[in-house]
Write a structure and sequence with these properties.
7-stranded mixed β-sheet, 7 strands, about 190 residues
């Protein structure tokens, strides 16, 4: 199995293949929940289409044997409106311009292959290549297996396995479990 993680820039069709609803009037976040959830579906699609056309782009895609298999949203924190205005996830030392990893999506048929590990490594490298000096995530802490819906933010265990350190707990929860701010220095 060959695995490759690439920036979403210039790869709109691959992003849209599984992140944009196929049915007219269909729902979904189109990875806009943290960016601007106030937008209606056509505006969400247009926004992400534009993001996939510019540098640094909205995140990274993972490919397995050439087929798009998943997505990770990683971008400068100040591009995520919901994070900047959050009452449950504190905003720490914004002058450093942190990048944020806010979600993971692995397509059905590709799950349970460890692709979240590949996506996280790819997200970190994309942030580094784009000039980031620090990247942070807001994963859930759980001793048990986390369900697919609650696990979209990743787990503390996943982030720690990739060199992230706990900074502080948040008031945010996913699936009833507390979320943490974890950071990794990129210097």
């Amino acid at each position: 199995m060959s695995v490759e993680v690439l920036p979403a820039t210039g790869r709109w069709d691959d992003f849209a293949a599984f992140m944009v609803p196929r049915k007219p009037g269909g729902g979904g976040c189109v990875c806009m929940s943290y960016r601007d959830a106030r937008l209606a579906m056509p505006e969400r699609i247009a926004y992400m289409h534009a993001e996939c056309s510019t540098e640094p782009g909205p995140g990274v895609l993972v490919y397995v044997d050439g087929a798009v298999a998943g997505w990770c949203s990683v971008a400068p924190k100040d591009t995520y409106r919901r994070l900047m205005n959050s009452r449950t996830i504190p905003h720490l030392d914004g002058e450093r311009g942190p990048w944020s990893i806010v979600c993971f999506v692995v397509r059905a048929g590709y799950r349970k292959r460890g692709l979240m590990h590949d996506l996280l490594d790819g997200a970190v490298e994309h942030a580094r290549a784009s000039g980031a000096t620090v990247v942070e995530g807001y994963p859930v802490e759980t001793a048990e297996k986390v369900d697919q819906i609650s696990g979209y933010v990743g787990t503390v265990r996943l982030f720690e396995a990739h060199g992230f350190s706990r900074v502080q707990p948040t008031e945010a929860h996913s699936g009833g479990s507390r979320r943490w701010i974890l950071r990794r220095e990129l210097q």
